[in-house]
Design a protein that fits this description.
Shape: elongated
Order of helices and strands: HHH
Largest sheet: none
Number of domains: 1
Radius of gyration: 21 Å
Structural class: mainly alpha
Length: 87
């Protein structure tokens, strides 16, 4: 069976490395766990920003104002909540 992870080496400023060490002790986690979580969150936030940018562009193309988008999202959430409560 092959490896399920890849080793990556990188450098941190001393203050950041010290903070990582503190967090390791405080949370009882490994360096790898902390950095995996940080990278995973960065990727999720970046994907969310890209999605928002795409949505803004599509809304402009369709002539929708920000208020329209908020209203549509609220309507969708309301419809979704109602259909879930019926299930």
């Amino acid at each position: 069976m092959g490896r399920t992870s890849t080793t990556i080496t990188f450098s941190l400023p001393p203050e950041m490395a010290a903070r990582v060490q503190e967090l390791m002790k405080e949370e009882g986690r490994t360096k790898s766990e902390l950095l995996r979580e940080a990278i995973r969150r960065y990727i999720e936030e970046r994907e969310w920003r890209l999605l928002l940018k795409y949505g803004e562009r599509r809304a402009r193309e369709r002539g929708l104002a920000p208020e329209d988008v908020e209203r549509l999202v609220d309507e969708y959430r309301s419809e979704t909540a109602q259909s879930e409560s019926r299930s």
